[in-house]
Amino acid sequence: MPGQPRNSRTSRTSEESRNSRIQRQVMQLIIDRRLQAGALLPTEAELMEDLGVSRNSVREALKALQALDIVEIRHGYGTYVGEASLTPLIDGLTFRTLARHDHDDSGALAEILQVREVLEEGLIRRVAATVTEAELDRLEAVVSRMEAAGRAGRPFPDLDRDFHELLYASLGNDLVPQLLAAFWTVFRRVNGARGRPDDPSPELTARWHRDIVTALRTGDVEGAQHAMAVHFRGIEARARRLG
Q1: 64-79 tens-digit pLDDT
Q2: pTM of this prediction?
Q3: Which residues on neighbouring strands pair with residue 79, listed in sequence order?
Q4: Closest CA to 168 of 157, 155, 184
Q5: Burial class of residue 206, CB neighbours in 10 A (0-12, 13-18, 19+)
Q6: CB neighbour burial string for 194-203, b if at least 16 within 10 angstroms, e if fewer
């Protein structure tokens, strides 16, 4: 900050660096000991001794790691290994979008959609090679429910999310649905904060999803990728229009 004494800034930087180092050491301890989510961490006193730092330094590091969902502090019970979920990413992206100083959060939403689009258009080719008939049947059932909701003029954000999670189940990659769900949640949060409708055209949205399943049913890889691209072009156009 302007006018702040240089030695004060240096001291703060040194403290932040030390805190970051202790955070890394705690994370390394979790890795080295192969501790899983829910496992009890060493006590504060044990961490102080193991890391050679003060109690206050341990507490500050653990608070920072709790914000990242790497540890979970249960007062009166101890500190446990956290789920390391994508919640901090979701919160950060939501804040970044809503805090745009130019108030053009539609542009920020379009950026998020573009990242998701690149992921899904690339992954759909792999899905076409791995998806089973049973998985296609489950996708078909979700689309049928979408179509019923669309005919009634009802939006169906939860069905949309279910569809995309089911779509990539055959890949056996746990990170894929988590990452895509993170982008989905940010989009819905921002729409809700701005008071925008979830979907102005449920029937059209249902048709986009039907086209994806139809292409996968026939083994049409290019068609599936094209249908996914059309789906995202429609979402992106809606985001910009509502901005």
Answers
A1: 999 999 999 999 999 9
A2: 0.73
A3: 73
A4: 184
A5: buried
A6: eebebbeebe
